[in-house]
Amino acid sequence: MDKKNDKYPRFPYPNGRRYNLTGFKFGMLTAREVDEIRSKGRPYWICDCDCGNTTTVDSRDLLLEKTKSCGCNRYLSQTGSAGSSWSGTGELSGSFISHIIKNAKKRNIKYSITKEYLWELFLEQDRKCALTGVDISIAGYGKKDCNRTGSLDRIDSSKGYIEGNVWWVHKDINFMKNEFSLVKFKNWCKMVVEYRKEF
């Protein structure tokens, strides 16, 4: 790192002394704390974005100004309004919506909900997974944006993507639930917890 980073205090870290970025702002991101789970070698920092999302960023990418937002500023203008090519709504990008619709058609599943409905649903859920209560993000530019953790799930897998039958969950939960009914998924989770209580 160059001398411009001397303004940041340092603190002890397993592989030597590292910059303490707590409270410093990088573009739209404010560094909150080190993400101990992901930190191997260089620390990763949990950062709060001005848009309201939370993301984890390599300290080097922050210091070199390679990452300045959770991904939202790649499709929002500097004033916070959508650009001329924007086809989404809220933090929900058009490419992500298209991916959901395309995937539903590929599996021959009915899809009859609007992007506005999905965005309002996300806000009604207070940006949290409907099954676990953990914070999730649906912001991002591409259909596989690494910062996005939210995934649209059908409550009743025998029905389509229709109003009243969808909710936002964490992508890992959706992966585990797959095509299970909600009751079957909950029963399996309960059996795992009860059988392997030492976890």
How are the elements arranged and paired?
Blueprint: E1 10-13, E2 16-19, E3 25-26, E4 29-34, E5 44-49, E6 54-58, H1 59-63, H2 94-106, H3 115-124, E7 150-154, E8 166-170, H4 171-177, H5 182-195
Antiparallel strand pairs: 1-2, 3-4, 4-5, 5-6, 7-8
Oligomeric nature of the chains: single chain
User: Which CATH architecture of the largest domain would you pick?
Assistant: 2-Layer Sandwich
Radius of gyration, Cα only, in angstroms? 20 Å
> Secondary-structure element order, as H and E?
EEEEEEHHHEEHH
CATH topology of the largest domain: Herpes Virus-1
Could you describe the 3D structure shown?
- By secondary structure, the chain is α+β, with helices and mostly antiparallel strands.
- The protein folds into 2 domains: 3-70, no CATH class; 94-195, Herpes Virus-1 (2-Layer Sandwich), CATH 3.30.40.220.
- It is built from 5 helices and 8 strands.
- The strands form 3 sheets. A 4-stranded antiparallel β-sheet has the order 3-4-5-6. A two-stranded antiparallel sheet has the order 1-2. The chain has a two-stranded antiparallel sheet with strand order 7-8.
- The protein starts with 9 loop residues before the first strand and ends with a helix.
